[in-house]
Amino acid sequence: MEMVMVKTSKSEKVSKGMQGIFDAIVESTDKFCEKYLNEEYKELAHRATAALCRKRPSPLEKGKVSTWACGIIYALGFVNFLFDKDTKPYISATNLCESFGISKSTGSSKSKIIRDALKMYQMDPNWCLRSNLDNNPLVWSIMVDGFIVDARQAPYEIQEIAFEKGLIPYIPDDI
Known about the structure:
Elements: H1 16-36, H2 39-54, H3 65-80, H4 93-99, H5 104-117, E1 141-144, E2 147-150, H6 156-164
Antiparallel strand pairs: 1-2
């Protein structure tokens, strides 16, 4: 039985040369998340910033801290539907960008650079808020013998294997 899924590292390690940039950006995203969002966005912003710091060359080496901080939150918001009024937390893209003192077009363009660099997409399991995991079908999609299967509907033995391989965040039948 073959099961396949790709996960990204959740490390926040960065090189000494990028540590200052990392610290400045996460200070900015932390303040924003504490005021408008939540701890989950704060953690994802740390991971995204670290991942961007590890890129060679890192796009973060050029440009303003506030612009990159906004772009990171914008990109994570895109993945998690932050701009949809029916979600909690919610903020408009315009208000997000204004909070960082940049235009919506600049925030959107930085977000696109970040999403491309980190291969982010809407409902991306690697960048999904923990609170959205249960409702995200992509988190539970695994490939078993060439077929895409919802792990929540799979036999317990397959759920165990998927969990052990890190393909799903927990075993649904154990809850």
